[in-house]
Write a structure and sequence with these properties.
There is one protein chain. The N and C termini lie far apart (about 90 Å). The strands form 5 sheets. Strands 2-5-7-8-9-10 form a 6-stranded mixed beta sheet. The protein has 3 domains: about 80 residues, no CATH class; about 150 residues, 3 Solenoid (Pectate Lyase C-like); about 170 residues, Rossmann fold (3-Layer(aba) Sandwich), CATH 3.40.50.450. By secondary structure, the chain is α/β, with parallel strands linked by helices. About 35% of the residues lie in helices and about 15% in strands. Helix 2 packs parallel to helix 4.
Length: about 425
């Protein structure tokens, strides 16, 4: 073997070793980055979220020294955005999608983003240079699935998203610019305050059952903003040249939101089922609720608010949840503020919250409570008796039937609300 051949072999082996070492280092870097995202140090978390962006795309020349972790990085971002995060970390992670190139068919279900920005780097370059070569480079999100996601107050720019799914999503206040949503699915989404700029393409997108259609706007080529519902045909499909408002956003059925405990004992379940059967036997009524396993781990108030926005009324089953055998109110206070509690029961705080939200939205509410339960918070007699007709209450009884006057009054107010809205 001559010297030249030996040198070439040595060079080849060195190159292989170098590339292997680079791939190992890059893999270690990815694992260190993902580990730092779970750090208790907020600075380390946000730094790792920024570094994670470098894995979302790579140049062709880096294929030998950089393993492709783009899919893993995107999936990690999605998982994190389904959890309760600090505002800064959530925004840093969400904004990172701006560095992705291919999100086609990506599972984005249940993600939560507030005030996020998704805007490809090429778009920023185009706005700075006006170089046409950057204008057509867009993030690919065709057939991406945002089912039941929250994208509230976000700015989304320059994405191709044919067939995108926003079913049951909360998009309040989000602005879309230069986006293609041909044949997209926005059914049952909350579109209050949404804006589609003149360079958005929505042809064939379905908005059936969406709420806020009279408060969502589409800007035409002349720069004029028109209400989104004006572009929908009788089936809720977007037609750019639709001549008039043919779609009716009014749903045929009365939708009642059911607020209840996540877990009930056998007696409570019997009581609950007996009232639900009464309502189910009434024609034209649909019942919706958030089951325990579907209750979101973050942005709970937004999710509850979205369900209530789609409802015409609310029924609250304020059953016993907490039992205090012995305790105090205002333990460290003196005088009349300090009270002893003995063998008292209370309902879940979440039922107070859901009732307060429903009442704030002026939804007719009916509270059915355990008679022996402590009546505090939203279920206090002083609140119910001084409230208007939208807040009614009655103790549970085995004799409750369709003829019950309070139940009849609440149903009347619910029907009136449905007709008005």
């Amino acid at each position: 073997m001559n010297t030249i051949t030996l040198s070439l072999i040595t060079l080849l082996i060195s190159a292989i070793v170098f590339f292997v070492q680079q791939q190992i280092r890059y893999t270690q870097f990815f694992h260190e980055c993902t580990k730092a995202l779970h750090s208790e140090n907020t600075i380390e978390q946000n730094a790792a979220a920024i570094l994670l962006r470098s894995f979302l795309s790579r140049e062709w020349w880096s294929i030998l020294i950089r393993p492709n972790y783009s899919k893993e990085a995107i999936n990690l971002m999605v998982i994190l955005l389904r959890q309760h995060l600090s505002t800064d970390l959530q925004k840093t992670i969400g904004d990172g999608f701006s560095f992705a190139k291919n999100l086609n068919g990506q599972d984005m279900q249940y993600i939560i983003m507030f005030d996020g920005l998704i805007k490809p780097q090429s778009r920023i370059k185009y706005e700075l240079t006006r170089n046409p070569k950057y204008k057509e480079k867009r993030i690919q999100m065709n057939n991406a699935d945002f089912f039941h996601s929250t994208l509230q107050g976000c700015s989304i720019n320059s994405i191709n998203a044919n067939g995108v799914i926003f079913l049951n999503s909360i998009l309040c206040g989000t602005s879309f610019r230069n986006c293609i949503f041909e044949n997209g699915n926005f059914e049952n989404a909350n579109l209050n305050g949404v804006r589609f700029d003149e360079d958005c393409y929505l042809e064939g997108a379905s908005f059936k059952g969406a709420i806020g259609l009279d408060n969502a706007f589409v800007k035409n080529k002349q720069g004029e903003s028109k209400v989104l519902i004006n572009y929908l045909d009788q089936n809720g499909i977007f037609r750019h040249y639709n001549s008039g408002t043919n779609y009716s956003a009014i749903q045929p059925n009365i939708n009642i939101f059911v607020s209840k405990l996540g877990a009930m004992d056998s007696k409570q379940r019997i009581h609950y089922d007996s009232i639900i059967r009464i309502l189910q036997n009434i024609d034209g009524i649909t019942l919706t609720t958030i089951e325990r396993e579907k209750y979101p781990s973050a942005a709970q108030l937004t999710d509850i608010s979205n369900h209530l926005d789609k409802s015409d009324g609310c029924i609250i089953f304020a059953f016993e949840y907490i039992q205090v055998l012995s305790g105090y109110l205002h333990k460290n206070s003196t005088g009349n503020d300090r009270k002893i509690i003995r063998n008292e029961t209370f309902t879940s705080p979440w039922l107070h919250i859901e009732t307060a939200l429903a009442h704030m939205k002026q939804k007719p509410c009916l509270i059915i409570f355990d008679e022996g339960m402590s009546r505090d918070g939203m279920f206090d007699d002083s609140i119910i008796t001084t409230a208007d007709k939208n807040l009614l209450a009655l103790p549970y009884s085995d004799s409750i039937s369709m003829s019950n006057s309070t139940l009849q009054e609440w149903l009347l107010h619910t029907r009136e609300y449905h007709l008005r809205n």
